[in-house]
Amino acid sequence: AAEVKVVGYVSTRYGKRDLAEVNRDINHWLTWYPEISGIFLDEQASEVEQLGYYRQLATSIHRRRKESLVIANPGVFCDQKYFAETDIDIFCVYEKGKSLESLVLPDRLGLVPSGRLAGLVHAAPKDQLAGNLESVAARQEGRLYVTDDRLPNPWDQLPSYWNDLVKFLAA
Description:
This protein is of the alpha/beta class. It is 31% helix and 19% strand.
Protein backbone atom coordinates (compact mmCIF):
# COMPACT_ATOMS: atom_id res chain seq x y z
CA ALA A 1 0.00 0.00 0.00
CA ALA A 2 2.96 2.31 0.66
CA GLU A 3 4.39 1.53 -2.79
CA VAL A 4 7.62 0.22 -1.28
CA LYS A 5 9.58 -2.07 -3.58
CA VAL A 6 11.08 -5.14 -1.95
CA VAL A 7 13.81 -6.98 -3.86
CA GLY A 8 15.64 -10.24 -3.25
CA TYR A 9 19.40 -10.17 -2.59
CA VAL A 10 21.74 -12.33 -4.69
CA SER A 11 25.54 -12.20 -4.55
CA THR A 12 27.41 -12.66 -7.84
CA ARG A 13 30.96 -12.41 -6.43
CA TYR A 14 31.98 -10.02 -9.21
CA GLY A 15 30.92 -12.43 -11.95
CA LYS A 16 32.89 -15.34 -10.50
CA ARG A 17 29.93 -17.18 -8.97
CA ASP A 18 28.55 -20.02 -11.08
CA LEU A 19 25.57 -18.84 -13.17
CA ALA A 20 23.53 -21.93 -12.30
CA GLU A 21 24.00 -21.21 -8.59
CA VAL A 22 23.04 -17.54 -9.04
CA ASN A 23 19.98 -18.54 -11.06
CA ARG A 24 18.94 -20.99 -8.32
CA ASP A 25 19.04 -18.15 -5.79
CA ILE A 26 17.00 -15.95 -8.12
CA ASN A 27 14.46 -18.75 -8.62
CA HIS A 28 14.16 -19.17 -4.85
CA TRP A 29 13.35 -15.49 -4.39
CA LEU A 30 10.80 -15.46 -7.22
CA THR A 31 9.18 -18.69 -6.03
CA TRP A 32 9.21 -18.22 -2.27
CA TYR A 33 8.24 -14.54 -2.39
CA PRO A 34 6.10 -14.10 -5.52
CA GLU A 35 5.21 -10.51 -4.62
CA ILE A 36 8.77 -9.17 -4.54
CA SER A 37 9.47 -6.41 -7.02
CA GLY A 38 12.79 -7.65 -8.33
CA ILE A 39 16.34 -8.82 -7.68
CA PHE A 40 19.39 -6.99 -6.30
CA LEU A 41 22.55 -8.42 -7.92
CA ASP A 42 25.29 -7.54 -5.47
CA GLU A 43 29.02 -7.50 -6.12
CA GLN A 44 28.67 -6.79 -9.84
CA ALA A 45 31.92 -6.83 -11.80
CA SER A 46 32.72 -3.47 -13.36
CA GLU A 47 34.94 -4.66 -16.22
CA VAL A 48 33.56 -5.29 -19.68
CA GLU A 49 34.82 -8.92 -19.64
CA GLN A 50 31.89 -9.90 -17.39
CA LEU A 51 29.26 -8.09 -19.47
CA GLY A 52 27.80 -11.29 -20.93
CA TYR A 53 27.37 -12.80 -17.47
CA TYR A 54 25.24 -9.87 -16.29
CA ARG A 55 23.41 -9.53 -19.59
CA GLN A 56 22.33 -13.15 -19.26
CA LEU A 57 21.19 -12.71 -15.64
CA ALA A 58 19.18 -9.54 -16.31
CA THR A 59 17.55 -10.99 -19.43
CA SER A 60 16.68 -14.16 -17.54
CA ILE A 61 15.11 -12.26 -14.64
CA HIS A 62 12.98 -10.14 -16.98
CA ARG A 63 12.00 -13.22 -18.98
CA ARG A 64 10.79 -14.98 -15.83
CA ARG A 65 8.91 -11.95 -14.59
CA LYS A 66 8.69 -9.10 -17.07
CA GLU A 67 7.92 -6.38 -14.52
CA SER A 68 10.81 -7.32 -12.21
CA LEU A 69 13.24 -4.59 -11.28
CA VAL A 70 16.89 -5.60 -11.76
CA ILE A 71 19.35 -3.67 -9.61
CA ALA A 72 23.09 -4.28 -9.89
CA ASN A 73 25.72 -3.07 -7.48
CA PRO A 74 29.23 -2.62 -8.84
CA GLY A 75 29.72 0.02 -6.11
CA VAL A 76 31.83 1.99 -8.60
CA PHE A 77 31.40 3.29 -12.14
CA CYS A 78 31.27 0.23 -14.35
CA ASP A 79 32.14 0.09 -18.02
CA GLN A 80 29.55 2.14 -19.94
CA LYS A 81 28.62 -0.89 -22.06
CA TYR A 82 26.70 -2.22 -19.05
CA PHE A 83 24.28 0.70 -19.39
CA ALA A 84 23.76 0.22 -23.12
CA GLU A 85 23.96 -3.55 -23.51
CA THR A 86 22.13 -5.06 -20.52
CA ASP A 87 18.57 -5.08 -19.23
CA ILE A 88 19.73 -3.91 -15.80
CA ASP A 89 17.34 -1.20 -14.61
CA ILE A 90 19.38 0.48 -11.86
CA PHE A 91 23.12 0.58 -11.16
CA CYS A 92 24.51 1.38 -7.71
CA VAL A 93 27.60 3.28 -8.86
CA TYR A 94 28.59 4.58 -5.44
CA GLU A 95 28.96 2.68 -2.18
CA LYS A 96 30.88 4.35 0.62
CA GLY A 97 30.64 5.39 4.21
CA LYS A 98 29.52 8.69 5.70
CA SER A 99 28.61 10.99 2.78
CA LEU A 100 28.26 11.61 -0.93
CA GLU A 101 30.67 14.53 -1.03
CA SER A 102 33.26 12.59 -3.04
CA LEU A 103 30.77 11.45 -5.67
CA VAL A 104 31.34 13.06 -9.04
CA LEU A 105 29.76 11.44 -12.07
CA PRO A 106 32.19 10.98 -14.95
CA ASP A 107 31.25 12.69 -18.21
CA ARG A 108 30.78 9.34 -19.91
CA LEU A 109 27.70 8.72 -17.76
CA GLY A 110 26.11 12.00 -18.82
CA LEU A 111 23.81 10.20 -21.24
CA VAL A 112 22.60 7.69 -18.65
CA PRO A 113 19.24 8.76 -17.21
CA SER A 114 19.62 9.59 -13.51
CA GLY A 115 16.79 7.19 -12.69
CA ARG A 116 19.14 4.35 -13.59
CA LEU A 117 21.81 5.46 -11.10
CA ALA A 118 21.89 4.90 -7.36
CA GLY A 119 24.17 5.44 -4.41
CA LEU A 120 24.53 3.52 -1.17
CA VAL A 121 25.84 5.40 1.86
CA HIS A 122 26.45 3.66 5.17
CA ALA A 123 27.62 4.93 8.55
CA ALA A 124 25.97 8.28 7.73
CA PRO A 125 25.14 10.14 10.93
CA LYS A 126 21.76 11.78 11.27
CA ASP A 127 23.27 15.28 11.16
CA GLN A 128 24.50 14.58 7.60
CA LEU A 129 21.17 13.24 6.41
CA ALA A 130 19.82 16.49 4.98
CA GLY A 131 23.14 17.25 3.27
CA ASN A 132 23.30 13.84 1.60
CA LEU A 133 19.74 14.07 0.33
CA GLU A 134 20.06 17.67 -0.86
CA SER A 135 23.34 16.79 -2.61
CA VAL A 136 21.70 14.01 -4.60
CA ALA A 137 18.67 16.14 -5.44
CA ALA A 138 20.78 19.11 -6.54
CA ARG A 139 22.97 17.02 -8.80
CA GLN A 140 20.03 14.89 -10.00
CA GLU A 141 22.00 11.72 -9.42
CA GLY A 142 19.12 9.36 -9.07
CA ARG A 143 18.34 7.15 -6.13
CA LEU A 144 19.95 6.95 -2.73
CA TYR A 145 19.84 4.54 0.19
CA VAL A 146 21.40 6.01 3.31
CA THR A 147 21.80 4.41 6.72
CA ASP A 148 23.71 4.87 9.94
CA ASP A 149 24.29 1.13 10.16
CA ARG A 150 27.93 0.06 9.83
CA LEU A 151 30.16 -2.57 8.28
CA PRO A 152 30.43 -5.52 8.00
CA ASN A 153 26.76 -5.50 6.89
CA PRO A 154 25.28 -2.01 6.95
CA TRP A 155 22.20 -3.12 5.00
CA ASP A 156 20.72 -5.55 7.52
CA GLN A 157 18.40 -3.08 9.26
CA LEU A 158 16.63 0.21 8.72
CA PRO A 159 18.51 3.33 9.78
CA SER A 160 17.83 4.47 13.35
CA TYR A 161 16.53 7.74 11.88
CA TRP A 162 14.08 6.04 9.51
CA ASN A 163 11.05 8.04 10.70
CA ASP A 164 12.96 11.32 10.32
CA LEU A 165 14.03 10.26 6.83
CA VAL A 166 10.43 9.56 5.82
CA LYS A 167 9.31 12.95 7.18
CA PHE A 168 12.17 14.75 5.39
CA LEU A 169 11.26 13.14 2.07
CA ALA A 170 7.57 13.83 2.52
CA ALA A 171 8.35 17.53 3.04
